[in-house]
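Could someone model uridine-diphosphate-N-acetylglucosamine with this protein?
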Amino acid sequence: MAEDHIIIEQSRALHGTVELAGAKNAVLVIMASLILTDGKSVLTNVPANDDVWQMIKLLRDLGAVITFDPENHRLEVDTRLITKFSVRAEVMKKMRASVLVMGPLLARFGRSDIALPGGCVIGSRPIDYHINGFKRMGVEIDIDGEYLTAHATELKANKIVLEYPSVGATENLMMAAALTRGTTRIVNAALEPEVIDLMNILKKMGAHIVIEAPATVVIEGVELLRPVEHAVIFDRLEAGSFLLAAAMTGGSIEVPQAPAFAMDMFLLKLEEMGHQVTVGIDGIGVSLRATRSPKAVSFKTAPYPGFPTDLQAPMLAAQCVASGTSTIYETVYENRLLHVMELQKMGAQIKIEHNKATIMGVDKLYGASVIATDIRASCALVLAGLVANGITRMSGINHLARGYEAMPQKLQKLGANIWYETQLPQDIKLRMPISQLA
Ligand code: UD1
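Reply:
Sure, complex below.
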């Protein structure tokens, strides 16, 4: 079958201002949370990426009436007609975040039938923390092959200790607990900015939620949650990706909406590399002026406020052309270094041992045909392509579209040589500037 590609040519230094989209990792769970209400909610700052379209499909399947205006990033979701509690396998498989409907469906209907979720190929990504947590809340769960049936006559508040601060498990359990009579405590909860955004919308709906130090989320269940209007937070991961694009090409960039207050560890590493980073008043907005001789830095990924695993691949790409040796430990996922093999095709000097990557900076990368295997890997390869001699041809571009709204278009505006290549069935390649795409 003919496959589309993105072509990246070595680019001059990128300069300019970039407008961010809303956070993908916040909007998907926030959309799922609307199932908890019975009425019409309005979300603004909704990114028009493919995962959002997928979540729209899933919610429509359940019966929600949805209008999305992608240009104005406005989404209206009316949940009054939701009557179903089962999600088709083909919808479920497209995106791991689909599992986040489980908590809201259990809270609203006492029942949820789903297939085991899909998503990126970055490890086994089980959902045992979700399942064990729901069991603590009195949910009976049956797994038959790929299907998971969950039901509870009445959800019960309880203390749930997470073995690991899983983002999805914290979100799923918090949503179920919001409508569960009594006090639920999630100990060792994830406190990523996207989890906090979910917490904020739930509170607007009328939920009672507080955080106890160091990381316990306490939810006092209420009878009813009301529809709301909410602006999704800006995407710190998209912000990080564009800061790196300017840093790697030796340029300068302003990202006025960047939630710098939630990007400390990442910004620290950019500064350690020698880049000049300025944060706006009140922790909003970041500008970067790149150094001409970036130094290699080392880090390990960790739950928030540690270095985000979702910026590991793009930051690793930056280390490939920095001066010196960098050591990167991926501690969140067991298989999230697949981009390394592709970067090696481009001349990167990287050694892998288990979850550790050692990168010896080189003067030049070289364009190659590479395959994106997940959302963040696709971003890393685009960034590497910007500084590689010659032409990089990336397949698997669906991943880029899943996670980012119009990243190639935004890069092009900053001065990047990036193109879209579509292959017609007659084996004719059609090459067009990103800006000419509808
Ligand atoms: C979310 C983000 C993803 C990000 C990740 C970590 C969304 C839509 N996705 O994914 O981009 O990379 O947080 O910041 O918000 N685990 C288990 N059992 C479970 C749940 C998780 O073993 O039941 C493991 C996972 O395999 C992984 C680790 O825990 O190794 C962290 O996963 P988790 O925080 O749950 O990530 P997601 O919510 O799936």
